[in-house]
Batch of 3 targets.
Target 1
Amino acid sequence: MADYRLAQAVDPGHDTRIFHFADSVFAHLPRADQRRWAQLYLQGLLTTPGRKSIRRLAAAVSAAPATASQSLHQFISASPWDWMPARQELIRLTGDHLPLRALTIGTVVLPKRGEHTCGVHRRFVPAAGRTISCQVGLGAFLATGEEDLPVDWRLLLPEQWNEDAKLRERARVPESVRHRPVWEHVLDLVDSVSTALPRRLTDRLPVVADLSEHLDAGRLLAGLERRGLDFVVAVPGALPVLPADPRVSRTVPGAAATPFGPVGARQFLRHHHVLPPRAVTLAAPGGRGRQLRVVSELVRLPGSCRTYRLFTEWHPAESRTPRVWITSLTGRRVEQLTTLAQAQAGTGLTVSLLERDYGLLDFEGRSFPGWHHHMTLVSAAHVYDRLLHAGAFGTRPPQNACDSRDRYFSARPKELTARW
């Protein structure tokens, strides 16, 4: 009870819309004090300038920061609350209020010191140009065409974390959580988002991901195909492909035609494409378009009868090697496919924004639940800001008003319009 009274000691000028949003997202928390600390942590992420350590958050939202800091730390790092219902609610709210264009997968690298923080390992990071100690996470982002909203996360555990019982116990890693390949994590994120969104949305929401550095990217393509989901995925240049027409044979100068066996995707586009490169103009900020040439061909994957389109930027005289993309959207124009592939760059910009403005890198705890709790609150802060900026609250009823959030977004529209 003392903690709950302390949570009331907040600047009376705070924006109550934050609390109503938090009430909806964290309605599943069983105790009133947990819901209140979720509200205050969220408020702190949105209002605290600079580094968002728990001490600074507590100072921003409480008149008794020392005690509030202890309670916020307990709520984030030690309290055993389930983060998945909150993320499912973020997915549903985003789908209700914003037009969705794609589900993108982004990677976050979180530098860490020491050896006991959950999932920490040494890795070469191209952006840093060196090997660092870090955590690596995968995020699911709902892209609208103007912005990407983070709605779910997975923490990648290196293989050495599978068997070290003492390390796992210190970091409170559940027994069921083990090292998994990236493609499995991606499918897990896709399933999570698909569960929360109506089928009419997931059926037309392509998955955009970059697995160009993962030799097992074909496993992801097979998983998405089994789920009946469309995709635009960057794959390794060595991914084996076949011509879409099985009757096509390979011709080599000075030799007879031979059956066309699997060829690496990059080699196929460079040496066996039939269609000439196509000029494409991509929209850019300020109205200036970026022009590039794209080459594409229809292909099959070994062991599959389905036809896909392979495409990449065309730079025959340069040493650079742009990403090779494969898509199930064979009926889309190359311009549309290239634009979808560029959504991956938008996800990277959102990650930078989360680092700069929403405290993505500022979690100081070591535990597996703590990491997920913090990432959930970071996502909630960003989604709140974007939905509010879009005028989503109090302006129109949700498209799928069918659960507990109706209390806040549609039950009493006149009152809520005034509050939101």
Note: The chain is about 40% helix and 20% strand.
Target 2
Amino acid sequence: MSEQYDVIVAGAGPAGAQCARDLANRGYDVVVLETEDEAEFPRTSNKSTAGTFPSMITSFGVPDEVVMNYTDKVVLESPNDHFTRHHAGAVLEFGDFKRWLVEDGREKGAEYRFDARVTGPIVENGDIVGVEYNGSEEVRAEITIDATGPSAPLAKALGVSELERENHAIGIEYELTGVDLDHPEYGDLTDAMMLRLDHDIAPGGYSWIFHTGADEAKVGLCYIQNDSHRENAREGFSVDDYMAYWLDRDPRFADAERKEGVQHRGSAHIQMPGDLSTDRFMAIGDAVPTIDPVWGEGIHKGMKSARAAAITVDAALDRGMTDTSAEQLSIYDRLWHRDVAPNHRTRLLMTELLYLADNDRYDRFMRDLGSLDEASLRKANNANPLAIAKLLHVDDVSLLSEFLREKVAIDFDGFLPKPVNKQRGNVSAAFEFK
């Protein structure tokens, strides 16, 4: 006989572990299935830059012990210029952070099974009723949640996932010591998170330096397999080649050394999600996907998607009046579009336009940012069209024309989130969160 739970969560990343933590705290019987071995967790899944913002730390009670460094500014770089904005942030020790989520969830009552590779859903009468793992083992629940990241085996099997190869981002990161964080040719990166737009280093993407304390930093780059990457890429260059190319040429790394055995590789999809749920099922975190298109930040949004899913479970299983229909679980879709990523489509289009620009335009972009007042900067970051228009010039017509040619099928009503093609469940004020 298969064991029965209220909820199965597949994956113990930030989204999955936070969802289990929330559900256990609400008194639900929840089991988490995680592929990795517990003794080494998280070894193969230790992939995030782990840069986030104080709102995440505060909202989810993250302890100082898992924070490598609190930062006080964001620096944007182009090949020959930079822009600095004072904005508080935090760089997490990602492995410690994930282990803390698991430990705290267990203390609240969540059950964890490591070495448990999910192989597919158990479907009866057209509905998912549980999960197969390790080939032949089974566990069943009223609701199943896929938090396995881009692999999304359950979401794909149920026809919920719509992850597309052309929106696939590939990344690599080292942790370095001996980094010159205040080199005279660049902006001061002391207690900063830096993002660099430079097709010479990361064509169709960006690179970063996140100060983690003393003379140490997380240094990495990623690119999306988009038209901009194909146009600007160096023939035969892999992501490792681009990393070596940057480290060899940037004087800030002249005396830097890699921490032995510390290397992070990862991938994610940066696109609009399709459906997020169906009968008895929801997908959260990078299985959706949830990464912010502008900043590349996924932890906070993944955690918020986890909380939205937990809220939805509460509504579906409230006081024994079980309703796990697609209509009821579409509460999650509504919360995702309203509270997790309300401007996701506009931010995605803004980012796609940005990656089409050349390096000279990136230099000018830094100067444009410096000319905006604080209110306009906030609006531009929130993808306000009028604020974004202030960053455009008459000679950007060719860039806009290229963008529109690539997006000729866009319905400009699409600047609003896609409607979910399911009847919405009711959401009372008690289910809202910020």
Note: The longest strand covers residues 257-269.
Target 3
Amino acid sequence: MVGCGGEGGPDRGRRPAGAQVTIRVPADAPTISGAVALARPGDLVLVAPGVYHESVRIDTARVTLRGASRDRVVIDGRLRQPNGVVVAAPGVAVENLTVRNNTQNGVLVTGSAKAADGQPGRSGGYDTGDEPVTFLKSFLVSYVTATRNGLYGIYAFSAQNGVIEHSYASGGADSGIYVGQCKPCRVVVRDNIAELNAVGYEGTNASEDMYVVGNRLVGNRVGLTTDSDHQEKLLPQQGAVIAGNLIAANQQRATPVQADGGWGTGIGIDGGSDNHFVRNRVAGNSNAGLVITATADMPAVGNRIEDNTFTGNGIDVGWTFPTATRGRGNCLRGNDLRTTVPGRLATTASCPRPGKSPSPAGRWAMPTAPGGIPFTEVAAPGPQPQFPRATTTGATPVPAVPVLPKTAGIPLPSASLLAANARVQTS
């Protein structure tokens, strides 16, 4: 069934039980929010090309919101609203559109009522105080361009069982793609481009069945971080798989300044534990390819760094613990690398490593981070790949639990991974 058109949109009163319809914007409803309000579970909201000045909140389960053209369907916040799209119901898919110019997030997927209402916490992130942890269960963000947003481009917070894929994030004043406060996450972040952000991808307190695979994290200030933070619940962060990513040239000046001053680092592990970094290509990061450190009270424990290729970094791997909190049981095996701090880590900290064994630490001269630019001035993205058959395919069923990748089958990426759709190149 399809929308019948006209001012009233599809005739909901006469719809057979279980029937699914396509609600078209602006044919059936003049705004995206109006179309979403008409939708029932299983419906598709299909948006015609145009610039839409609204914040869209989806509170109905299993609705698909899809643009007819990824580059020409634009939700533009004009810096007057916190979020472009808020997903607050399970089983929702957001596909094939651009979200830009929001003071906080391009797309926010969350089970937190406070976060959904746009209540920021300390340092611009979300501190939900005494609010109990409530997970939104099952989501999909696919073929979305999120650019020039004041906090995160695509943000899954207190959400489980989801996929962020085939998307592009730039101009995130904090991170392009962020997953926070989930355990077990059962979240897959795959085949995305994050560039020209303060941080390409960040996972904070994102633990267990958390997969970041096959992404291009190039030309940010910091490529990827996985960390523990008291600002969110479910400490500590542990049990993520970071595999098959290209993480390179993360010292781009024309980016928003990172809140903690990070610069020139490919991968940062700050108080994260039991993570597996395997077959990533980490290249040309002027400070370091991979850094392990600890928060003031959260040690970095049991991280495995295996079969990665490091080239052209200031140092390839560096472990540093400037406070009394240290690391334990971190190890390396089978990596192509040249320089470590302390020296000879590949020998002295080879895998497997006893869990209680203290991790050695050292220091190195880190480059000074230069000033950045406002997120509103980050270079606009080029055209991005379209969702296949966007206008002829029905609503997208979102599985209750996504299929999780098998780490053994994830290859080392080429140095040109997803380069055709990126502005920043690795050389």
Note: The helical segments are 32-38, 113-116, 345-348.
